Amino acid sequence: MTKSFKIGRDAKTGEFIPVKEAVRRPSTTVVETIKIPVTSKRNRA
Q: Structural domain of residue 23, as residue ranges?
């Protein structure tokens, strides 16, 4: 199972911006989904 979250990014500068702002300007922004692998707690010491 992987957890994920969305992040907005300006397509021209590469700067991270809020998702709300990225949705408002779709021609110059990208909304990316970042996946975080979940590690098993069973194998930890």
A: 2-33
Tell me how far apart the alpha carbons of residues 20 and 31 are, in angstroms, rounded to a whole number: 10
pLDDT digits (tens, 9 = 90+) for 2-45: 789 999 999 999 999 999 999 999 999 999 999 988 877 776 66
Catalogue the long-range contacts made by 41-44 (C-beta closer than 8 Å, 24 or more residues apart): none
Radius of gyration, alpha carbons of the chain? 15
The candidate with the shortest Cα–Cα distance to 19, out of 10, 31, 27, is 31
Counting the structural domains of the chain, the total is 1
Give me the residue label for tokens 């957890």: 3
